[in-house]
Amino acid sequence: MSTQPKRARIQDEFSEQDETAEKKEKDGVSSLMEDFNIQDDEKQRTGQPDDSAPLDAAKGKERFLQRSQSRKEAKEKTKLTLNDTGETSNYMYKLGQKIAKFGKEKNSKQIKQQAKDMCALAEEYLKLTETSAEGWYFVKACCLFNAALRRYQKIQWDIKDQENTTGSQETYIKKRLQVIETEFLKKVPSNPKVSNMSTSESAIKFRSLINEVREYETNTINHIHENVMKIDLSGTADMSEDAEIQTIEESNIFYNTVTDKIKGFHNSVIEDCMKVLGVPQCRYAILGHGSLARKEATAWSDLEFSVLYDPTEKSPEHVEDIKAYFRVLAHYIHIKILNLAETLPYCL
User: Fold this and answer.
1) What is the pLDDT along the chain (348 residues), one digit of tens a residue?
2) Taking the chain, what is the end-to-end CA distance rounded to the nearest angstrom?
3) How many CB atoms lie within 10 A of CB 190?
């Protein structure tokens, strides 16, 4: 078994692939040049007229070589540009492929391996936060750790963990989620913050709030189905006119109430974030979009929102500070929602 680190081996494999591709490209160019020469020699031997002057053929070869070189340079430039983002290291790319390769039907061994790879990729994103203030790295690490947490929990629910490692993995992930929030708040521009509530306590609080909304939804829908949407079996087997009117009225009440409860939930998340970050130094409005704006959202719907702020009488420097604040706030809200452990990563 090789003692070379796994990450280094993967990088070596990619380097070998690049060298092989480059050799094939060179061989292709040489082969094509030989074909040009063979065709020219054949025409001279048989006395066939040349379709183009020798000078044109030479120019054609030159243009071909130039295009090949341009493609190669463009490829190298693209590779450097992608690597500069910090998200396309060979190791991270390989982990992403492994995470995404399993379909929806996975056995316990595959689930555990996928969770392990998610944790490894999350750790890579956390490493990027050490040299970058980019908030998305924290968000992606948080998403991956929570997705891994749900998979370890699923293993516990489905089978008895023979290796007795699932519990320790859950503990490890919860500690890393706390690290994410702590380090994220340290990165707040020019004013590091600290939360008085632990990440686990916050997740429990908001999970309880959203479950209250879900309980209301379930009970109300069951009530409407069982007690309001009554079928008139004596005639057309349709609802009576009175039942239709009552169904519409109670459905309107239901959707209005659910919308208010969901807005209350999101307001609670935002208020908790602002207690830590401080309030913005301007007038502002946070707008809900999509199903929430249409009053069609449920407690399982995603959240789409935007922020409006008033830059009146603010200096350009102050406006930039306001923008930076709301970017941090948006990332912090995202992290809070992700810690409900209900978000599916993009790749799955």
Assistant:
1) 444 444 444 444 444 544 554 555 455 444 444 444 444 454 455 454 444 444 567 777 777 777 777 766 665 554 433 334 445 688 998 998 899 887 776 788 899 999 999 999 999 999 999 888 789 999 999 999 999 999 998 887 655 544 555 678 999 999 999 999 999 999 887 778 888 999 999 999 999 999 999 999 999 999 999 999 887 666 666 888 888 999 999 999 999 999 999 999 999 999 999 999 999 999 999 999 999 999 999 999 988 999 999 999 999 999 999 999 999 999 999 999 999 999 888 655
2) 32
3) 6
Cα(111)–Cα(152) distance, integer angstroms: 8
Helix (H, G, I), strand (E, B) or coil at 294: coil
Distance, CA of 346 to CA of 100 (rounded, Å): 10
Quick count: other Cβ atoms within 10 Å of Cβ 140? 22
Please tell me the total number of residues recorded for the chain in this structure: 348
Of the candidates 298, 268, 299, the residue with the CA atom closest to the CA atom of residue 286:
268
